[in-house]
Amino acid sequence: MTRRLVVTGTDTGIGKTVFSAALADALGGAFYWKPVQSGLEGETDSETVQRLGRIPPARIVPEAYRLRTPASPHLAASIDGFRIEAEALVPPVTEGPLIIEGAGGLLVPLAAETVLADVFARWKIPVVLCARTGLGTINHTLLSLEALRARSIPVFGVAFIGEMQADTESIIAKMGRVRLLGRLPKLDPLTPDLLRQVFRENFDIGLFLKELA
Ligand SMILES: Nc1ncnc2c1ncn2[C@@H]1O[C@H](COP(=O)(O)OP(=O)(O)OP(=O)(O)O)[C@@H](O)[C@H]1O
Ligand SMILES: [Mg+2]
Fold this sequence. Notes:
By secondary structure, this protein is an alpha/beta fold. The chain has helices at 16-27, 45-52, 73-80, 116-123, 137-150, 166-176, 192-202, 205-212, and strands spanning 4-9, 31-33, 36-38, 60-61, 65-67, 98-101, 109-111, 114-115, 127-132, 155-161, 180-184.
């Protein structure tokens, strides 16, 4: 059976797509799926993963929903004149490990009565929570962990994005009773080569491979 991981974050713009690209690249042969894409101007998340992770188009699963407006999915869908059928969102079967990227954070509404975390709860797929290392992250990370656990969603671990904040990381591990997977620094320039190298230095790929075997 194909194993899967969901990549979520404490907020929008955290670095989920960059992390997903690096992880998909490191795993080798991995597939990527962004079920709900809000905003189609510029590069979509699927296109970014293709470019930054050097993932061939055949391993990028088409989005279930492509919404034109860069807004919360429930609003973006209603502007486009339809409703998201959250119950119909089912992860595809792929011939290799599948990385699924959420939209924004966990309590983002897909429709009037459904948030993204409700879909993750139905899937029961382990989740990587991406968190910034900057100010405010302890609160956002612990809140997100509570939201995951309130729905019995398995938590694979927390991945930090940003500069080193040792105390922040250790308090989150302790109070959140969660495994820390590593930290991806902000890269400049953000290139496929540098991302590959830094991800390998900062994360235990074997741990992911074991989960996704
Ligand atoms: N490790 C990194 N190094 C350099 N830039 C980064 C890194 N991670 C993220 N960024 C930049 O930060 C911005 C937001 O990152 P990203 O698109 O990955 O966030 P996201 O959590 O996927 O957002 P969304 O909720 O829209 O899916 C992008 O411009 C991205 O290039
Ligand atoms: Mg993204």
